[in-house]
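Q: Okay, next protein. This is MFS general substrate transporter from Trametes coccinea. I've checked the sequence twice, so it should be correct. Can you predict the 3D structure?
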Amino acid sequence: MALHQPPAVLSTGAGSLSSSVKDEEKQISIHEVEDVLEVESSVCAIDNDIERRLLWKLDMRIVPASMFLYFLCCIDRFNIGNAKILNNDTGDSLVQTLHLTDQQYLVALMVFFIAYALFETPENYLLKKYTPSRWLAFLMFMWGVMTMITAACKNFADLVALRFLLGVFEAGLFPGIVYCLTFWYKPNERAVRIALIVACATLGGAFGGAIAFAVGKMNGVRGLEAWRWLFLFEGAPCCLCAIFTWFVFPDFPETVAWLTAEERALAIARIKGVASLGHDTLRWAEARATLADGRLYVHYLLFIAFSVGFASMSQFAPTIVQGLGYEGLRAQLFTVPPYAIGFVVCVAVAWVSDRYEMRALGAAGSFLVCGVAFLVEALLPPTAFVARYGVLCVALPFAFAISAPCLSWLTGNLRNTGAITLAVPLNVSLATIGQIIGSFIYKSSEAPAFPTGHYTNAGFMVAGALGALTLRAFYVRRNRRLAVGEPRWRL
């Protein structure tokens, strides 16, 4: 027995030792897991911090450059509305100098939008082929030249030809900028940035009115009417800034030199699967699927409705203000406040839409407020100048604010390069239908009340609100049918 006892004692000791070792290993294992979790958490925090710094770097490069380009574009696009009434009290406006009838002036507006519609989609393809910086710089230089040559117009034919060419060269800018944003930003990051860019249209209108007020005092200098000086002064900066655009405007995440290797990898990785990649090419299968996707045509209809109000306010705001009792150069000056308010409203609507993932409601709400404002404008007595001007300061800002949530909603629900390459310019091209309608609804014969214009705008805005809510209900229903883990449609 004595001989067998040591093994028994050894066995017990071994078991105890084994148990002790296992307990110790378990404790080590637990500590290791805790350490790993702590490290992973730290890495995630570092990654988030790196991404925030990257986003800030992108915003400082991409957004200001895009805003500036669109700002100059809108000044040159809207200035015909300022030229129409500039110095008309002395018989020296664009319409009076060129002896244009109301119908001829409207045709000059319309041909711009026809060119815009025809060239938007092919120019978006060329943007990718020649890189954004070079293509946008070329477009900018050429529309600046067209604007300056407009100062030399002698008759209706000259004006129509130059407005058409201006439309050709401006057509690629806005859809091109929106397309470029998809190379860099996730869908839920785009609305505010698109809004900041779109809001520059309101700044363009505000500055355009202020510039026209100042230039109006140059009427007769060197034998030129003030409207000719207006086109010269507003076209020249675009030609100069085209050089800046060629060298500074960012192209693709894969090619820019101002990102580190780590930042470049993160910029590409963060949008993979949710956005467009610069090196991707348009495939016919994707294009065909995009053209056959019925839901996208509802998005296009919303943008057509938006474009009626946008185009009419862009072209006729000075004329409407003139009908509110502000004559001569004062009419130019009083276009500034509605546009300035518009900048704030555009950014606010887009921020709320992005922050709370409610782009559909942001668009519908803007449509509705704008529609009610136009209806009130139509119902007010023609002599209620102060009230009508106050309502205009509501209608115009929300007419512009619709754009950002609509575009962000559309791009957020496009899931491949083919769809983005085609759908964005197609959306803006089809919106030309609305822009042409908007160009014809404010008739000089109906001044100062302009009932046709206000009632037409009210109808399209209310229809847009109903369309946005209907499309939202469609996406909600689709989301309910999706399995867990499948990508959701954005609302």
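A: Here is a summary of the prediction. Residues 1-46 have pLDDT under 50 and may be disordered. The chain has one domain: 63-245+265-481.
Q: Noted. On to the next one.
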